[in-house]
Amino acid sequence: xxxxxxNSFNExxxxxxxxxxxxxxxxxxxxxxxxxxxxxxKGFDINDDLQDQLGSVTESMKKCxxxxxxxxxxxxxxxxxxxSSIEFVKKTKGVWDNAGWESYVKDLQKKGxxxxxxxxxxxxxxxxxxxSLYSFIPASTKSSKSASVK
Length: 150
Description:
The protein has 150 residues and is mainly alpha-helical. 77% of the residues lie in helices and 0% in strands. It has helices spanning 5-22, 29-41, 48-68, 75-92, 98-110, 117-148. Helix 1 (5-22) crosses helix 3 (48-68), helix 1 (5-22) crosses helix 6 and helix 3 runs antiparallel to helix 6 (117-148). It is globular and about 35 Å long.
């Protein structure tokens, strides 16, 4: 089943965030397979490319989660970073410069997040992996639709 682009993007990032948080930043291969099964049950076509993209997103979120675990109120940090990343990538269509990056960080700070240099770097990694997923989804959505049209 092919999903529309915006809903797919938002849902995949939300599911990845939920997975990392529910696993508390640690998981084994079986937990990963369960996550892939959940994604498939949501109507996504699981292929190696999508698994790679989601792997990149969850690994960057895992590093951010683990880095923020010692921070006061860390439970909200990954969710806020994920939401902000979704909105920022959609707003910029995945293209930004240093001023854009600084705007992204200021938006996180406006939401009450205090990020040290290391956590800020991890937030940047989450943002980059979300951008990569954003770029990947239109291609996979188009190929799913073309494959189903005969």
